[in-house]
Amino acid sequence: MGHLIYGVAPAIRIEDWGLRHLQSVMLTRLRRNESFSFSWDNEPDVGGDAEVAESGRHGTVWISKSSSLYFSYDRQRDRPLNRRWLVLLADAANSTHGLRLLPEPPDDSLPRP
Q: Which residues form the DUF7882 domain (predicted)?
């Protein structure tokens, strides 16, 4: 059985490196006043909502300029972001399927502007 959660959604646990890339793409979109969906399947884990007894395997949230987002990390950033991954995630955010954490590609083909 699924759950519709309106208002405060559960925390979505995402590994630091992936979350840093998602944060960059999300904040870029929000600075442009662009709304988008963020979805997950099996990963990342969803937790933090007492009403949902078992973590959801699939989920989607709608993110707009009125959304309150908080990014928290276990470790400090220790390397530059993978520009190729940022482009891949930004393209996903522009698609009909919306933003989701995709596998990281090698960062070897995008020159710096």
A: 1-104
The residue with greater pLDDT, 110 or 79, is: 79
| pLDDT tens, position by position, 40-80 | 876 544 444 444 445 556 788 899 999 888 899 998 888 99
3-state secondary structure of 59: strand
- Strand, helix or coil at 40? strand
Q: Is 39 helix (H, G, I), strand (E, B) or coil?
A: strand
CA–CA dist 75, 5 (Å, integer): 30
pLDDT digits (tens, 9 = 90+) for 68-79: 888 999 988 889
- The whole-angstrom separation of Cα 108 and Cα 113 is 14
Q: Residue 70 corresponds to which tokens in the numbers above?
A: 């908080």
Q: Where are the domains of the chain?
A: 11-100
Phi, psi of 67 (to 5 degrees): -75, 145
Which 3 state secondary structure label does DSSP give 100?
Answer: strand
